[in-house]
Amino acid sequence: xTLQEFLARGEGKITIFKKLKAASTVDLSEKLxxxxxxxxxxEKGPNDDFIDSRPEYEQRFLDFLYFLQDLRAELRxxxxxxxxxxxxxxxxxxxxxxxxxxxxxxxxGNLEKLDPIYIIGNHDIDLFDWxxxxxxxxxxxxxxxxSVDGKPRILFEHGFQADFxxxxxxxxxxxxxxxxxxVGYMEYLDPDIDVILGGAWDSVSRMFxxxxxxxxxxxxxxxxxxxxxxxxxxxIERMQKYNKGDTEDPHGPADLYLTVIGHxxxxxxxxxxxxxxxxxxLLDCGSWVNGGxxxxxxxxxEVAVCQWG
Length: 309
Prior knowledge:
Blueprint: H1 3-9, E1 14-23, E2 29-36, H2 56-75, E3 79-83, H3 97-103, H4 105-112, E4 117-119, H5 125-133, E5 140-141, E6 144-148, E7 151-156, H6 171-186, H7 193-212, H8 223-228, H9 232-243, E8 258-261, E9 268-274, E10 278-284, E11 294-300, E12 302-308
Helix pairs in contact: 2-4
């Protein structure tokens, strides 16, 4: 199914978000890949950004799932749904996931009918660790690679791995996590506290990400590329390592052209020619919180950010 055919099937409910689409010179996928970014499900309280005090947003997501279920019934194994992480927001949850499941029975039940691949995000990594100790990850993965002709072509990862302030395996990520937790608790007193503090935190995070990318605020040879996406350099280097077989993942050299992430809640699609005629792509799918309702689509040579509704 082409991107245009997919849009047509949406009967006006699917649009290209901010003209974010591109076409590679090689096949990126043999299937239609639907990439659902951050949802941050809570218990439908005032600081639940998924519904954002708009109950109709839940029905909008359900309509999206019903559409995908109908498409899956037709395409069967030719469509794959990937949830890119932060399905839950366990940093702000008042209890365990049972409360969230109770609040979102329809959403989670209908999502599960699509047999999605779940990527772990920084806000639900604790769940993955708990599952792993039980000997069952329930289809939750640290990352996932999709293949064309038997060789990995796309890397799917939440994106916190490239984020100095949120990398959960670093000291900086531990600090960022605790700051986010404190802000999350404060939201119970003022649901808009994240907006109030967001500007200051974004400025700090931006400086972290400049240095994390190996760039300098004064002396930045890739400044234009940085403004497109602060993680571009990180993921191009990651893809190059995979393509050389320089990875701990259990496979030989890959043939990656595209990385798909979420995490930043800001939809972007960037490309950068390297290695002669080869062009690498980074697709940031945005989010499904605060009315974003964005998702990534990869089919054949085409890649795009779409919006539902």
